[in-house]
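Structure first, sequence second, as always.
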């Protein structure tokens, strides 16, 4: 009778048969194992938060794995604490370049943060909020230059919209 491997263990050689925290203790863990196993070599056997402590963590792993080299094994908010990511960033954004382009949970998508990020903006230059304010101020000046009168508050969006109606 063939023995059945315990649930949540690696399917490659040299993994711990008594690993109760679902982590491998050697290289070459199964990349197909979807239950808290390593997807690259040399993951930490003592890492209880499902993070790798070496380079080449899986960039496709959506459950608390690193997307850059040398991410922190103790990082409980799914951020890198090494070069070019902010270890103290409490709003889930990176403040430097080279954030994960595939990270869909409030991370930068390119260098200098995405200006299109509508959920908690980036902390680099050219944030959406600043760009919007500058655009609004420009439109306001244009409306007043044309001397368009509108019976609304000078700080209302309706004034700008009304101005365009008068101009068109």
């Amino acid at each position: 009778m063939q023995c059945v491997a315990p649930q949540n263990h690696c399917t490659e050689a040299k993994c711990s048969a008594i690993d109760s925290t679902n982590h491998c203790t050697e290289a070459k863990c199964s990349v197909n194992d979807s239950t808290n196993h390593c997807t690259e070599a040399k993951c930490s056997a003592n890492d209880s938060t499902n993070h790798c402590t070496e380079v080449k963590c899986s960039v496709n792993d959506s459950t608390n794995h690193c997307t850059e080299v040398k991410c922190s094994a103790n990082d409980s908010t799914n951020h890198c604490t090494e070069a070019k990511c902010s270890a103290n960033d409490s709003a889930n954004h990176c403040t430097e370049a080279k954030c994960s382009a595939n990270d869909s949970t409030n991370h930068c998508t390119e260098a200098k943060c995405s200006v299109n990020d509508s959920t908690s903006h980036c902390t680099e230059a050219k944030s959406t909020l600043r760009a919007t304010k500058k655009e609004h101020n420009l439109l306001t000046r244009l409306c007043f230059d044309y001397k368009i009168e509108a019976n609304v508050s000078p700080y209302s969006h309706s004034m700008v919209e009304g101005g365009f109606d008068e101009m068109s």
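Margin note: The mean pLDDT is 42.
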